[in-house]
Design goal:
With about 80 residues, the protein is an alpha+beta fold. About 25% of the residues lie in helices and about 25% in strands. The chain contains 1 helix and 4 strands, in the order αββββ. A hairpin with a 2-residue loop joins β2 and β3. The longest helix has 18 residues. The protein is flat and about 55 Å long.
């Protein structure tokens, strides 16, 4: 569907807004959002794929590793 005139008239303001949001903060300025700390989660166990073929019916399939001799785990993943 081609853009409407109303939508076209919003583009300059939206471009300016997203350009401002994507710009780096000037030196010495306080960032608007807090810095994100990297995090890791350690999981030990098997991975399962769940499905629901019908209402009230659930299935579970253990995912096997093709590069590990098709073993089903348990694995330790970070």
């Amino acid at each position: 569907m081609p853009p409407t005139e109303a939508g076209e008239s919003l583009l300059p303001d939206l471009i300016a807004l997203f350009t401002t949001l994507a710009a780096a903060s000037p030196p010495g300025a306080v960032p608007v959002t807090p810095p994100v700390e990297p995090w890791q989660v350690r999981y030990t166990g098997r991975f399962r794929r769940h499905g629901r073929p019908a209402p009230g019916v659930w299935t579970a399939e253990t995912i096997r590793c093709p590069g590990c001799g098709r073993t089903a785990g348990p694995w330790v993943v970070t």
